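Listing S7. Sequence submitted for prediction.
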Amino acid sequence: MEKIRNFLQRKDIEVSAKRYGIDALGAMAQGLFASLLIGTIIATLGEQIGVELLVTVGGYAKAATGPAMAVAIGHALHTPPLALFSLAAVGSAANELGGAGGPLAVLAVTVLAAELGKAVSKETKVDILVTPLVTVLSGVFAAMLFAPAIGSAAGAVGGAIMWATELQPFFMGVVISVIVGIALTLPISSAAICAALGLTGLAGGAALAGCCAQMVGFAVLSFRENKWGGLFAQGIGTSMLQMGNIVKNPKIWIPAILTSAVTGPVATCLFGLEMNGAAVASGMGTCGLVGQIGVYTGWMSDIASGAKAAVTAMDWMGLFLTCFLLPGVLTWLFGLFFRKIGWIKEKDLALDL
């Protein structure tokens, strides 16, 4: 047992929730952003301004989704070069065979292939053959065996969530908004979770509302401490910057969570806000305005398919109120109350920017 432990340590193979559930999952979201999401944005821009070249470029970017996710995951797992590059084939197979749940299949299969590739890396004199051979064969075989089932399971869970949201938009609007919003601020990836479950439609709109409540909420709530730098760093960057402060005083999180419990059902029940763009955008909030761009690309896709006649003033109002105005105003008001009763004190929200 000691020999195995020493071998794993030497190979930097760490079986832990942090390595797989935070590092790898977060990297997967970056891979999705750098391929599927950015490709969708470029293609949509090309369609809107009539530049076919941009549509083509966007198509190529979207086609690289599987390899991009796998290589990103491999990088997060500290995979050596030969194994890392071999993961491109693994990601392509897992994403294709995983169907609607492709991202989750890519995560599971890539972790297995990357760790096996790390295990054999530089253990033989023909490493240039052995490492990619083991990585590709183990990964593709695992994809063939498990990816369809993983994809189906993820698709079923995501489908059940979306069905429940259609059936009970108020209750599910609260639940999804709060949970995904909390995930966005935690050191895990809300974008990857939404992508893995394929959260679109009303459920995607609720998820987006929750993420915006956290990002815009913390940006406004902490303005007196962090000024304009903090506003932009959290508002279009990430509310994860507050995690250190949350650990010190968890009560500072309550205003943003309460806000997400309000904006979620506002999105689902009042405005019918749907995310029909890439599912990964549902978990991005206002980060680079990716969530809002995702809603817009969904509108354009719906118009192109005939599912939507046009973008209305109500659509724009719902997007603005849900993503920007309500998160800022409500969190600020909740924050005033919690500051008054002493739950939030001066400097509790200060960032070292």
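Caption to Listing S7: primary sequence and predicted structure tokens for the chain studied. The mean pLDDT is 92. DSSP finds 15 helices and no strands in the chain.
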